[in-house]
Amino acid sequence: MTDTQWPVWEVFVQANPGIPHKHVGNVHAADAEMAIQNARDVYTRRSEGISIWVVPANAISASSPEDQGSFFEPSNDKPYRHPTFYKIPEGVKYL
Amino acid sequence: MTIQEAKFQYLLRLGDSSLIIGHRLSEWCGSGPILEEDIALINIALDFVGNATAILGYAATVEGNGRTEDDLAFLRGEREFRNLLITEQPNGDYAATITRQFLYDVYTYYLYEALKSSKDETIAALAEKSHKEITYHLRHTTEWMYRLGDGTAESHERMQNAMNDLWMFTGEMFDMDEVDAILIKEGIAPDLNTIKEKWEAHVKPVIAEATLQVPSYNFKQKGSREGKHSEHLGFLLAEMQSVHRSFPGAKW
Question: What is the pLDDT of residues B117-156, one digit of tens each?
Fold first, then answer.
């Protein structure tokens, strides 16, 4: 069976100024303008955001599950890379 | 006719049009062409029903007879409704829904823009809120006009058929009577001739870019100002009002 759906677009929403756009899900759409509108209608109905990015899903390159060992495990025994030895100054948000 | 009576009639026109087109759009719930578009349409439907709640609530206050927005929505008969004929036309196929919505969105876009400077503060405040919603409705339906009108041979044909069927309902959007005359004089409502100019200047280029034709006939359907409706409104009200009429005063 062929897929008759429109292409998939990954949706990223920024909740507040100055913080990163966060992946929230995806939508189907024929083009970028409709993808933005569909993302607005599906993912920002409850005031979740102030900005939307959409990216064609096939434009995203991902690491493979088989890479997990070589990619991520070597950092497990290097706790000194965590910034836990610093105190966060009071009043700093979104850190 | 007093200013109060004129204002009540005017608010019924605004509120009923929102309520009826909102209900029509809600009929798509669960059967939209794709999930995203289903949600988009229901968002728009909810905007209209919310707008109707506010406007009919204010209408009830202006009337001052102890009725509520629910009484106005659910306990009036067909001949007492003042919604524009275009708002009660059936959904048809998706081309008909989009065409109906586009023609009406452009109208509300300029009407509510004008109402933002109404001398009635409540109307001005309601218009301010609604105009943001309408701006999005119009953006959404305009994009669909281009894509379906200038899409495949089949989508083009369906859009042109919809335009031919619905164009005759656009003329009465700009009809004015004593109600308008009184409220224009008071600075409460705009002159619909100015809205008509803006509407035509906006609608025609979009229709052309969507590779569609404005129908050449001059025939115009009218009657909603006097409560004379097409045969479709009675069925819509029967469904919309059935719960309230079966369980009067029910709350949840």
Answer: 999 999 999 999 999 999 999 999 999 999 999 999 999 9
Determine the average pLDDT of the residues in A26-46: 95
Nearest CA in chain A to B136: A37
Q: Which residue in B25, B35, B36, B47 has the most chain A C-beta atoms within 10 A of its own C-beta, making it the best mutation to test that interface?
A: B36
Domain ranges of chain B: 3-214+223-246
Which among A34, A40, A41 is the nearest to B143, CB-wise? A34
Q: Is residue A70 assigned to a domain?
A: yes
Domain count, chain A: 1
> How big is the A-B interface in CB pairs under 8 Å?
28
The closest of B191, B173, B174 to B182, measured between CA atoms, is B191
Residues from chain B contacting residue A40 (CB–CB below 8 Å):
136
Please judge whether B139 and A5 are an interchain contact, meaning their C-beta atoms are less than 8 angstroms apart: no
Domain that holds residue A33: 8-85
Q: Is residue A43 part of a domain?
A: yes
A3 belongs to a structural domain: no
Q: Tell me yes or no: is domain B3-214+223-246 CATH 1.20.1260.10.
A: yes
Q: Is B39 close to A34, i.e. CB distance below 8 A?
A: no
- Prediction pTM value: 0.90
Residue A93 belongs to some domain of the structure: no
Asked if the Cβ–Cβ distance from B34 to A41 is below 8 Å, we say no
CATH number (domain holding residue A19): 3.10.20.520
Q: What is the greatest pairwise CA distance in chain A? A: 58
Residue A51's CB is within 10 A of a number of other CB atoms, namely: 12
CB contact under 8 A, A29 and B36: yes
What burial letters (b/e) apply to B62-81, b meaning 16+ CB within 10 Å?
bbeeeeebeebbbebebeeb
Residue B92, number of CB atoms within 10 A of its CB: 16
